[in-house]
Amino acid sequence: MAAFGAALRASKNIIAVCGAGLSAASGIPTFRGAGGLWRKYDAISLATPEAFAENPSRVWQFYHYRRESALKAEPNAAHYALGLLTQSDSRALLAPACANFKIITQNVDGLSPRAHTKLPSPEQAAASTIEMHGRIHDVICTSCEKTTFDASSPICPALAGTEAIVATGHEEAEPQIEEADLPRCKEPGCDGLLRPGVVWFGERPHRLAEIDEYVERADLCLVVGTSSTVYPAASYAEEVKSHGGRVAVFNLDRSQGDGDADFLFLGPCEETLPRALGIVT
Question: What is the mean pLDDT of residues 145-156?
Answer without folding.
Answer: 96
